[in-house]
């Protein structure tokens, strides 16, 4: 009798436990999502109705490939459909106050420059997205840190990007640029012109400059790291369809094994580079320095049209207010920076808009320019680009090759999918 009663008790408890777990799953994949959808629509947002489990992920994956733009098209610089195809598709249908579904989690599009600045300033409320557990194998360090850890590491890193420190990096950047230009001179020396895909050389230049300025290391070590990052970017993109599932990164899939291996190899290379740090000095030509305060506004307009940081994502962990919008926790916010930079309401038609600086460039005289998404290395990247462009213009004239295919695509940064062929 007692054995039968005990068995019945355990059976009943097991049934209750299973029912409780099922309710938790149903709540996670359906009830919470539908409740949030209703709330967002009441706030004036529009989007597709939530579909069980995947949301919009299948459509996002389908539209990930980049289509070429006709170089003679009047809208040749409108890269939003190429770089953010699904976001553009949803924005076209539902307007600026729209949302998409990252699995069971709604993702709001925030394209108002004022709101974007507010999100950047209130980073204790609007935090970096952590739902994809595989992201730790793609990126680490300050870009992934939050709260007190982020403030501490940024405080340590900030002095390295002060103006006087950046000036000390000029010789190393000059040396890297000079090597690239010397290579091009040799290639073109016995002819009047040469067709060349400059994109691999620009990537090499970036890797070499970071290696020299940050670690003083050889180019080969830096290039290995950049190649691993490139592979890891593709791996991470491939993982997005399932990465939001709890515990997915612990499954021994081929993709997960590759991501973990690349992560460990990158860390080992960086540690090795730090141990081999050396210093270099080089005299920078005054003529190049003068040619640089001239290329600034050209670069700023190029960065507006082809923002390296195309989109950022933030997560809300507690109920808050953004502008006039009330937002609950468990919401994602997408900041489509490239959309903001292409918004005619912000920028108008003036091609010489940066002649009076960034603060007066947009129509409303408010800063709507976020090409690097608030990255601490922005001034370093601008200095690198100015010096490289000034030195190239000193030595070459160039034009776009007929072989060039205009197809900007989104990787770690916005980049040409099929290279950059110049004559």
Using only CA atoms, what is the Rg? 25 Å
Instruction: Give helix and strand order, one letter per element, not per position.
Output: HEHHHEEHEHHEHHHHHEEEEHHHEEE
Q: How much is the average pLDDT?
A: 82
Shape: globular
Terminal Cα separation, in Å? 92 Å
Amount of beta strand: 5-15%
Number of helices: 15
Q: Poorly predicted ranges (pLDDT <50, ≥5 residues)?
A: 278-282
Structural class: alpha+beta
**Neighbour order of strands in the largest sheet:** 1-2-3-9-6-4
The major pleated sheet works out as: 6 strands, mixed
Number of strands: 12
Cofactor: heme
Transmembrane segments: 6-31
InterPro entries: Cyt_P450, Cyt_P450_E_grp-II, Cyt_P450_sf, Cytochrome_P450_Monooxygen
GO molecular function: heme binding; iron ion binding; monooxygenase activity; oxidoreductase activity, acting on paired donors, with incorporation or reduction of molecular oxygen
What does this structure look like?
This protein is an alpha+beta fold and 423 residues long. The protein contains 15 helices and twelve strands. It has helices at 2-42, 57-62, 80-83, 85-94, 113-121, 147-157, 163-188, 199-215, 219-239, 254-275, 286-291, 296-305, 337-341, 344-347, 378-395; strands at 46-47, 98-102, 105-109, 126-128, 196-197, 312-316, 320-322, 325-327, 331-335, 408-410, 414-416, 421-422. The strands form four sheets. Strands 1-2-3-9-6-4 form a six-stranded mixed β-sheet, sandwiched between helices. Helix 9 packs antiparallel against helix 10 (254-275). The longest helix is centred in the first third of the chain and has 41 residues, at 2-42. It is globular, with a radius of gyration of 25 Å.
